[in-house]
Amino acid sequence: MIKKVQKSGVTAAAGVQAAGIHAGFKKRKKDMALLYFPDGATVAGVFTKNKVKAAPVQYDQQALQQHDRFKAILVNSGNANACTGKQGKADVEETVKLLAAELNIQPEEVLVSSTGVIGMFMNMETMRKGVKAIAPELSEFGGAAASKAIMTTDTVPKEVSFTFEVDGKTATIGGMVKGSGMIHPNLGTMLGYITTDVAISQTALHAMLLKAADATFNHATVDGDTSTNDSVFVAATGKLANPLIASAEDAGYAEVEAAVLSICSQLAQLLVKDGEGATKFVEVIVSGAKTMADAVSIGKSVATSSLVKTAMFGEDANWGRVITAAGYADTEYFDADVIDIAFSSKNGEIQLCEAGMGVVFDEELAKKILEADEINILIDLHLGTEAASTWTCDFSYDYVKINADYRS
Amino acid sequence: MIKKVQKSGVTAAAGVQAAGIHAGFKKRKKDMALLYFPDGATVAGVFTKNKVKAAPVQYDQQALQQHDRFKAILVNSGNANACTGKQGKADVEETVKLLAAELNIQPEEVLVSSTGVIGMFMNMETMRKGVKAIAPELSEFGGAAASKAIMTTDTVPKEVSFTFEVDGKTATIGGMVKGSGMIHPNLGTMLGYITTDVAISQTALHAMLLKAADATFNHATVDGDTSTNDSVFVAATGKLANPLIASAEDAGYAEVEAAVLSICSQLAQLLVKDGEGATKFVEVIVSGAKTMADAVSIGKSVATSSLVKTAMFGEDANWGRVITAAGYADTEYFDADVIDIAFSSKNGEIQLCEAGMGVVFDEELAKKILEADEINILIDLHLGTEAASTWTCDFSYDYVKINADYRS
């Protein structure tokens, strides 16, 4: 009898192995993950904009400027190795060498990530033991274990994979993610790892990742509100054996770009849905903006407003909080007297504000719409043709109950 | 027997009467306040920067440009009269005329404020009855009632008064405030009313108020994160009969400026301390900045960080969250490698981060320091000589308990 094993997330693409173990940075839970590309992979990354950058982030940024192919990415949770000065840098370098020796590869082929407490030196004894213990666990079925090992306060592991067409062949892309930036007060860092089997240059991969991260992870959190360790990597093993994609003119570029965008989008939505205690996924769709920057700014302002998020939890059609948050967004063009606001979900759509004024609406229908798990807040600025989506979740904790019924 | 009655808050200064009643905008609680200056007062105001401005805010801004002396300010809670279009404007104008007729004054001598739900038309029937009912209640001892009537979700009325010296005489200043901007997710609007008996020009008063609001209310909340109705007024009755203060060169200017700053500071701190469920008052003191804008930006970034506020509630010396919030502030000059961070309270002071790196510290002492009701977070940027304070409170709700112990 042949047992069919479905490879998950980060190990879905050919040429990727992974492992996830308990090394000892945390008391009991898995806390060390390893991605391994036996024949190498082209890697691109995007990193936190915070002016305080953790030691591994600084290391990776330099490594990715100097090289384009790598064989391993080691991740630990439980200690961020941030604000650790020279010792932190030395610890990263030692870790890189330890892992390279263990895997019999070159130190220049290793990247590292860390997440956890800031300002504490890495327990290198634990790291040494962990590196020795994790290497033998590597497997092309290790994606699920790796996705558990990168978690901190995440409630569920988050992984995605799917196939798409490149050069007449079936390409695969998969990924895993942890944490979130702004959405949950308890989570500092977001880390993301995406792998694919296409053959592509680092320049092309980096351009796609930048564009995708800006349209997804940065719309699920808030620009600038980044931790010291935020990192997203894409690794391409080339096992598909397609003709190398080096520029936007090359065949397959558009398909890979769409796949990277799609997986980033799916991973970002998983982050939002894992908002601690979140009961609703909320998409703020701003249209009719004169500039894209205005659409994004208003979307983020509304999506991060505690008042809007508590109203969503309370299933209260309090559009006044929406227009208030829109009004304090940093925008170039804004006219409070022409804005329309509506709420929609699988249960219907209801107009609440027309030309900046409240309209009489059916409270029963509004309540029904807001009872859904996924809600859209639709804002039409009527000033132009630009539009943008921003994702958030409701605030669903007990303390919020106090605020949720403020309108009534 | 003579009963000594202490005039409170907004009626402490000579020439001011006030009242606070239940008009019916809310079910049971007081919801209408009136300030009355029988012989007139010079009034200055500062208002929300939100692009969506409530009808009364629009009215007051215009009125204060056209006139400098007023006799009455009417306030209702329960309905913001925001996003109400032409009807909202008409309702303000009708309210002004109603009150003028009731008090036998000119409509140009009336100002109005509203706070409450956005996007609903004012119940003018309630307004008419309220105006009739409140006028006979006016009294020079009505400050306490007025301070109750402007409350929405405030847990306590907030009023302050004190005397100071001008021109060799004892001047009085008093005030009341409600709500807060950013600090409490449940509160939309902040309203403030300050009265004094000095004789001063509108221009001078306005300059003082602008400066004071920027250094106090704007440091307790966040610039831009303003409701549709935020307003702070200062009214000066001139009953002290000092020589008119018209410019910064005039005798008494510095004293009044200091008094306005002091009362705004005290009222802003009352706002912060009334943070729903707040157990701690936190002052973030940023020093060593190269520019004042950098000091303010970092102070606000740290003071509004949910991660920092939950750590304060958890009495956890998690300075990593402080440096992270500092690192994503919008600053011109910032060097992560030279920052010092310390916590202090009446129980002592402890250095946690030196030159951007964690230092080994006494966890017991840190805990003892953070057990105090009032905590200072001290951040020295070591880049210059500018400094700024920002006030906030902790996040103390049940849901926060989950986050408060993340570090351990």
Automatic annotation (TrEMBL), chains A, B:
Pathway: Amino-acid biosynthesis; L-arginine biosynthesis; L-ornithine and N-acetyl-L-glutamate from L-glutamate and N(2)-acetyl-L-ornithine (cyclic): step 1/1; Amino-acid biosynthesis; L-arginine biosynthesis; N(2)-acetyl-L-ornithine from L-glutamate: step 1/4. The active site is at T189 (nucleophile). InterPro entries: Arg_biosynth_ArgJ, ArgJ-like_dom_sf, ArgJ_beta_C. It is found in: Cytoplasm. It catalyses: L-glutamate + acetyl-CoA = N-acetyl-L-glutamate + CoA + H(+); N(2)-acetyl-L-ornithine + L-glutamate = N-acetyl-L-glutamate + L-ornithine. SUPFAM superfamilies: DmpA/ArgJ-like. Belongs to the ArgJ family. Heterotetramer of two alpha and two beta chains. This is Arginine biosynthesis bifunctional protein ArgJ.
